[in-house]
């Protein structure tokens, strides 16, 4: 039996797999999002946060995805640098805009929660600042991919940048422990278990799975597009050479 | 019971959901448009170059 990564490392097999997997992930994500939204809007108001607790159901999954997608970007970039595999490079390139979008959402929805709860749209605390740095890494990666005429060179430079940016992930995650921040500490992924009441935890987890499913579907669609683009450009190049 | 009245925080809750919906619509729309465009282009190039078997 062929292990999953080796199976998917063949572009033809990847195209066959992603053809049915992408819509399936999309359907699963839609179902999970509908269930999460229903539970989120039937949950009672929080005694401290009031109705702003409902922002948590879209803010926290976006923040988790901003880290997870960067991990995928970094992993794919490493594989691309080490093995020079076309699919790994396409995966890295396809992940970056999605990661930037999730990080943007985490920042915007966080500001919309922070204004009524903290009295400020933005504070330069360690968590918020490190997430902003993460967003800038995504933008820099996207900019670098398009900055050079030689696609191989820009891919290599962007992959190195992505690997450098991995250093920021533990900083984002543990910033609330390492520094005194206005942003609250971890309330779900804790050694002692979640501190959040089940009535809020369930919609949050369902929405997180929905975001994950949506990312899975869109990532596959974008990798497929990237492979088609490369095929089209390679064929056009061959045709131009005669 | 469905609670769709987040007063007095409606000015923060609904924009947060609206921004999320907009970003998701943009992500889905752009990804599908990108895929459609390059699938069509790859198909055209393949037709023009019958020797290409990739």
Task: Give an account of the 3D structure.
The complex is a heterodimer of chains A (242) and B (54). Chain A is 79% helix and 0% strand. Chain A is mainly alpha-helical. Chain A is globular. The termini of chain A are far apart. The relative contact order of chain A is 0.17. Chain B is an all-alpha fold. Chain B has one helix spanning 10-48. Classes of the chains: A mainly alpha (242), B mainly alpha (54). At the A-B interface, helix 2, helix 3, helix 4 and helix 8 of A face helix 1 of B.
Query: Helical stretch count of chain A?
Result: 8
Helices and strands of chain B, in N-to-C order?
H
Tally of DSSP helical segments of chain B: 1
Radius of gyration from the alpha-carbon trace of chain A, in angstroms = 20 Å
**Strand and helix order of chain A:** HHHHHHHH
Shape of chain B: rod-shaped
Measured by DSSP, the beta-strand proportion of chain A falls in under 5%
Structural class of chain B: mainly alpha
Task: Report the C-alpha radius of gyration of chain B, rounded.
Answer: 22 Å
Largest sheet of chain B: none
- The total beta strand count of chain A reads 0
Biggest sheet descriptor of chain A: none
| Low-pLDDT residue spans of chain A | none
The structural class of chain A is mainly alpha
Helix content of chain B: over 70%
Q: What is the typical, i.e. mean, pLDDT of chain B?
A: 88
**Most extensive protein-chain contact, per-chain counts:** A-B, 40 and 38 residues
Q: What value does the average pLDDT of chain A take?
A: 93
